[in-house]
Task: inverse folding
C-alpha cells in the first residue's frame, strides 16, 4: 500500500532564490507531521506545492501513489486550510462549503456541507454571508470547507489562528479524528505545544530545508523548544 | 466511530464543473449587483451622451448608431471582465478552485459563461436603448441583430476572460486589462459594426453575412485558443 503522501526532493525557487530546497518526506496513514519554522522558512510554499497549487521546480509529490502533477485525481484526496480563508464573502457559509462539495463531486453537497459545519460547531451560522462573520468563525467555515470531502491528506497552515477556545477544541478533535481514521496530517504552526500534541513526526524548516526531522516519540521536548527558539531568533 | 473516508466520489467533468463555477459567479453578482449596475449605468449614459453630441443633419442615424452601440458595449463589457477574477483574489478564494479536482479549463469556461450572461444582460438593455434613441427602423432585422450581438459577446468574453486572469495579479490590472484586450477586440467591433450597419440601413441581411462569418471564425479560434492557454496563466 503506497504512503498517503510521498514528497521527493522538492525544490521551488522565486527570482532565483530557493524557497524550498530539496525537501523529502513520507507520511503514512495516521501520521501527523508538525512542521515548525521561522517566518520565511518556506513552509507555506511547501504546503502550496503539496496541495497542487504550485508546481515544484524539481521533485515530485505522490498522494496515495498518484502523482500530483498527473492531474485532478490526486487533488481530490487533499484538503487545505490556508492563511487566507479561501471563502467568497458574498456567499453564505453553507454555500461556500457546498461549493467545495460540488467541486469534489459529493452526491449530496448541501447535506455534506451541513455535516462539516456541524463538525466545526458553526452550523448555527450556516445561512449567514461569510463576510459578516468574525475572523474566528470564518476560520471555522474555512476548515469545514477543507474537510467536507474527508481528504486523505489534510494540510493545515496555522489553522488555530483566530479561533476561540471552542473553535480550537473542535479543530483539535477533528484533526485527531481524521488522523485516527487513517488520514495523514501536515500541521504548520508556530505553537510547539499545539503541534506536538497531535504529531507523530516533527520537523523544523529553515531557509527552505528540513534542519530537523524525527519521530515525535524520540523527541526531547525541552531541547527541541530551545533549539526552535534559537532558530526563530536568528532568522527573525 | 470516525467517518473513515467519503465514499469514492467522481469529480465533475469539465462542462459540469464549468457550470458549477458559472453558477457561483452569477450568485455572487446577483447578491452584490455592483458590477452589473455600474456597467448598465455606464452603457445608458454613453448612449445618452452620444445622442446629445450627434448632429443629425451631418450624420445619418444608421451610420452613427452601430459605432455607438459597439463602442459602448466593448467598454461596458470591460467593467464586467475586471470583476471576473478580482472577486477570486479576496481571501484567495481562487485557491479553492485551483485545489479542486477539476480541469483548469473548467474554471475558464465557467468564468467565461458567467461573463457571457453579464454582457448579454448589458446588450439586452443597450440595443433597445440605441434603437429608441436613434429611431432605427428595425423590424424583422432585430433577430439578426441579436445574432450578431451573441457572436460578438462570445468573442469578447473569450478573450477578455483570459486577459482578466492574466492581469488580475498585476499591480495595474485596471489599466492592463484594456491595454491587452482592446487590440484583440478590434476585429469584433469592426465585424459587428459593419454587419449591424447594413441591417440598420435596411439592406438585405445577406450583405451582413461575410462579416458574420468573420465573427464566427473569430469565436471558434479564440474560444479554442483561450481555453487551451488558460491553465498556463495560473502558474505562479
Result:
Amino acid at each position: 500500500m503506497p504512503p498517503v503522501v510521498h514528497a521527493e526532493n522538492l525544490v521551488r525557487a522565486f527570482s532565483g532564490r530557493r524557497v524550498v530546497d530539496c525537501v523529502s518526506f513520507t507520511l503514512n496513514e495516521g501520521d501527523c507531521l508538525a512542521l515548525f519554522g521561522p517566518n520565511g522558512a518556506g513552509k507555506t510554499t511547501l504546503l502550496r506545492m503539496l496541495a497542487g497549487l504550485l508546481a515544484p521546480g524539481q521533485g515530485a509529490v505522490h498522494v496515495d501513489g498518484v502523482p500530483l502533477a498527473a492531474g485532478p485525481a490526486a487533488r481530490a484526496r487533499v484538503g487545505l486550510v490556508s492563511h487566507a480563508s479561501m471563502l467568497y464573502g458574498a456567499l453564505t457559509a453553507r454555500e461556500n462549503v457546498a461549493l467545495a462539495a460540488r467541486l469534489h463531486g459529493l452526491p449530496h453537497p448541501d447535506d455534506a456541507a451541513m455535516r462539516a459545519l456541524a463538525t466545526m460547531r458553526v452550523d448555527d451560522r450556516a445561512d449567514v454571508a461569510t463576510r459578516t462573520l468574525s475572523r474566528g468563525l470564518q476560520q471555522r467555515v474555512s476548515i469545514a470547507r477543507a474537510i467536507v470531502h474527508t481528504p486523505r491528506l489534510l494540510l493545515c497552515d496555522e489553522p488555530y489562528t483566530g479561533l476561540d477556545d471552542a473553535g480550537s477544541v473542535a479543530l483539535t478533535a477533528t484533526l485527531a479524528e481524521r488522523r485516527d481514521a487513517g488520514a495523514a496530517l501536515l500541521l504548520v504552526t508556530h505553537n510547539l505545544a499545539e503541534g506536538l500534541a497531535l504529531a507523530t513526526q516533527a520537523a523544523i524548516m529553515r531557509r527552505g530545508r528540513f534542519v530537523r526531522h524525527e519521530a515525535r516519540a524520540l523527541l526531547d521536548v525541552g531541547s527541541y523548544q530551545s533549539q526552535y527558539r534559537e532558530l526563530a531568533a536568528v532568522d527573525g | 466511530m470516525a467517518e473513515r473516508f467519503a465514499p469514492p466520489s467522481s469529480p465533475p467533468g469539465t462542462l459540469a464543473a464549468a457550470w458549477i463555477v458559472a453558477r457561483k459567479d452569477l450568485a455572487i453578482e446577483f447578491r452584490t449587483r455592483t458590477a452589473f449596475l455600474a456597467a448598465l449605468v455606464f452603457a445608458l449614459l454613453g448612449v445618452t451622451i452620444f445622442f446629445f453630441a450627434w448632429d443629425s443633419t451631418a450624420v445619418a442615424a444608421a451610420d452613427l448608431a452601430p459605432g455607438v452601440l459597439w463602442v459602448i458595449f466593448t467598454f461596458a463589457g470591460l467593467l464586467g471582465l475586471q470583476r471576473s477574477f478580482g472577486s477570486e483574489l479576496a481571501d484567495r478564494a481562487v485557491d479553492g478552485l485551483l485545489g479542486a479536482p477539476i480541469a483548469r479549463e473548467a474554471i475558464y469556461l465557467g468564468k467565461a459563461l458567467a461573463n457571457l450572461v453579464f454582457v448579454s444582460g448589458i446588450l439586452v438593455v443597450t440595443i433597445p436603448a440605441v434603437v429608441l434613441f436613434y429611431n432605427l427602423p428595425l423590424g424583422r432585422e432585430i433577430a439578426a441583430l441579436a445574432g450578431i450581438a451573441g457572436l460578438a459577446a462570445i468573442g469578447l468574453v473569450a478573450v477578455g476572460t483570459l486577459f482578466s486572469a492574466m492581469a488580475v495579479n498585476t499591480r495595474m490590472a485596471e489599466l492592463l486589462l484594456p491595454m491587452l484586450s482592446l487590440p484583440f477586440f478590434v476585429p469584433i467591433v469592426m465585424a459587428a459594426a459593419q454587419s449591424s450597419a447594413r441591417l440598420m440601413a435596411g439592406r438585405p441581411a445577406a450583405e451582413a453575412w461575410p462579416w458574420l462569418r468573420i465573427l464566427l471564425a473569430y469565436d471558434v479560434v479564440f474560444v479554442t485558443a483561450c481555453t487551451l492557454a488558460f491553465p498556463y496563466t495560473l502558474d505562479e
Summary: Chain A touches chain B through 43 residues (CB under 8 Å).
